[in-house]
């Protein structure tokens, strides 16, 4: 497990790049708990908006070489337009028990994160076309 301070440092470094400054940024899957949210705040990383989302609709695009990181696509928010990429997508290899455990952890941790981000939290109906979301 990566320590929260290291996560915050890595995220802070990445968000200081020109593309993030000009185009903005989205953190997906982080923070997962109140300690991580506080660590981000103490590092000066304060989002303008926070959305509540479950990652049950995530698919992975494995690297052809196996060396670089996976590309992650979401069935609602970020589905690839290239049919060749779509054919190579794989669902994460999680059992029903693992998915249930992750959902339980997510729902347990969210109220604590909500306390920190309550002023910028947005509720979005993701059950609609991505252009509307």
Quickly list its features.
two-stranded parallel ribbon; 9% strand; P-loop_NTPase; kinase; transferase; kinase activity; 4 strands
Characterize the structure shown.
Residues 65-69 have low confidence and may be disordered. The chain has a domain at 1-53 and 111-132. α1 (4-15) packs across α3. The protein has 133 residues and is mostly helical. 41% of the residues lie in helices and 9% in strands.
What do the pLDDT scores average to? 75
How many helices in DSSP terms? Answer: 5
Distance between the termini: 33 Å
Principal-axes geometry comes out as globular
Q: Main beta sheet: strand number and arrangement? A: 2 strands, parallel
- Please mark out the parts with pLDDT under 50 across 5 or more consecutive residues, or reply none: 65-69
Radius of gyration, in angstroms, nearest whole number:
16 Å
Beta-strand content: 5-15%
- Per DSSP E runs of 2 or more residues, the count of β-strands stands at 4
Order of SSEs: HHHEEEHHE
Strand arrangement within the widest β-sheet reads 1-4
Q: How much helix is in the residues?
A: 40-55%
Structural class: mainly alpha
Task: Briefly say what this structure is.
This protein is mainly alpha-helical and 133 residues long. The chain is built from 5 helices and 4 strands.
In terms of topology, how is this protein built?
Elements lengths: L3 H12 L2 H6 L10 H9 L7 E2 L6 E4 L9 E4 L8 H6 L7 H22 L3 E2 L11
Parallel strand pairs: 1-4
Antiparallel strand pairs: 2-3
């Amino acid at each position: 497990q990566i320590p929260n301070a290291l996560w915050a440092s890595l995220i802070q470094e990445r968000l200081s790049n020109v593309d993030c400054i000009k185009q903005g940024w989205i953190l997906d899957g982080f923070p997962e708990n109140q300690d991580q949210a506080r660590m981000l705040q103490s590092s000066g990383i304060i989002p303008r908006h926070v959305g509540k989302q479950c990652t049950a609709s995530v698919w992975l695009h494995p690297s052809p070489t196996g060396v670089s990181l996976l590309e992650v696509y979401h069935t609602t928010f970020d589905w690839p337009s290239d049919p060749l990429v779509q054919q190579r997508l794989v669902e994460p290899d999680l059992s029903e028990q693992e998915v249930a455990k992750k959902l339980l952890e997510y729902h347990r941790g969210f109220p604590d994160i909500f306390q920190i981000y309550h002023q910028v939290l947005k509720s979005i109906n993701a059950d609609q076309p991505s252009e509307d979301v």
